Amino acid sequence: MKKFALVIVAALISMTAFAQQGDKAVGARLVYGSEIEKLGLGIVGQYGITNEVRGDASLFYYPDSDFSAFEINANAHYLLGNDSVTFYPFAGLNITNIKHVATKPGLNVGCGIEFPLTDKLVFAAEAKYIIAKKGFAQFVIGGGLNFRF
Question: What is the pLDDT of residue 2?
Answer without folding.
Answer: 58
